Amino acid sequence: MFAKSGTDGRRFAVFVCEFSLKSATFGPMINKIQQRILFGLKVKQSRQAQSLSFADLAGRTGISVSYLNEIEKGKKYPKEDKIQALAKALGVQESDLLSQEFGEGLAPVGELLRSNFLNELPLDLFGIEMSKVVEIIASAGARVGAFISTLLELSRNYAVKEENFYFGALRSYLELHSNYFDDLEQEVDRFARQFQLPVERPLPPDLLKRLLEERWGYTILDNGLDAYPDLAPLRSVFVPKRKELLLNSKLSAIQRSFQFGKELAFQWLQLRDRAYTSSLLRGKTFEEVLNHSKAIYFSVACTCLKNRCWRKWRLFFAENAGTAKLSYCS
Asked: What is the largest CA-CA distance in the chain?
């Protein structure tokens, strides 16, 4: 659910800006979730056109106010007898309510639902319900409708790489949370307690390497990438079938710790949808891009103790951003 109307606008604007040029696949049918949304919008449109309150419609149909509210929000799809009662009470044909045809006022919504535009967005991560987005568009008037139609037209005509939008969504997600995730911080604390990690930072790479080998059965080859010149720009490659982690032999101790920390994150957090290269060369799904970001966050949080970093930053700014030297979060 949206928290505040102002937040509604910001969150939806984030999505529009990041995904407006995405190549979308269009088809003639809408899925069951979209069907519920469309049915609810038609009921709402007909009810409001007749200036009926929920109580008025409930009295005419015998359907409770709470259930009518759920129908209009696209959360419930009524059985046939209730659909018949709604059609009769609203003075419309049952076929009009059930049709996938869109009236003039719902034309932009229809175009949106028939596309994959909304399906491609990780709405749940932003706490946004698809029905709410559709409702905003449906009630926003002709100008917003024309704007959405323009976005969809652009999405059909411009072949922009899909991963660009996954990274755009990730950037928006990080900004929305000010790049701080308490749940991941808690997981790092729990991980540190379970494996009794030392307080000193940075953590020795051999300690993290041993955890991967002994707890999760990794085989780690310190110079594993040296035999593959084309992979020289990469810091590591994970081979899942053999649980082998191939490292670039030129990595520093801190870089090795960072790579080990990411692998520990994938295992500890049970992030299954992941890339196997140290850098995300191409995001195949948003989940993969998000999990890569989580692994980076986890690894950095393991390496840099939050309270110590904060003390150093406070000292840095207290000395007018110039005289305090920051070591690597040690």
From this structure: 77
Sheet strand arrangement including 244-247: 219-221, 244-247, 236-239
Cβ partners under 8 Å of residue 162, min gap 6: 22, 23, 283
Start-to-end C-alpha separation, the chain: 41
Rounded CA gap, 244 and 33, in Å?
Answer: 42
Domains defined along the chain, listed by start: 5-165 (1.10.260.40), 182-318 (1.10.10)
- Tell me what pLDDT residue 35 has: 82
What are the pLDDT digits (tens) for 71-122?
A: 988 888 999 999 999 999 999 999 989 887 766 666 666 666 666 666 666 6
Long-range Cβ contacts of 137-143 (<8 Å, 24+ apart): 137/108, 137/109, 137/112, 138/41, 138/45, 138/105, 138/106, 138/108, 138/109
Total count of residues recorded for the chain:
330
Q: Are 227 and 244 in contact (CB under 8 A)?
A: no
- Residue 225 pLDDT > 80: yes
Give 252-307 pLDDT, tens digit per residue. Answer: 999 999 999 999 999 999 999 999 999 887 878 888 999 999 999 999 998 876 66
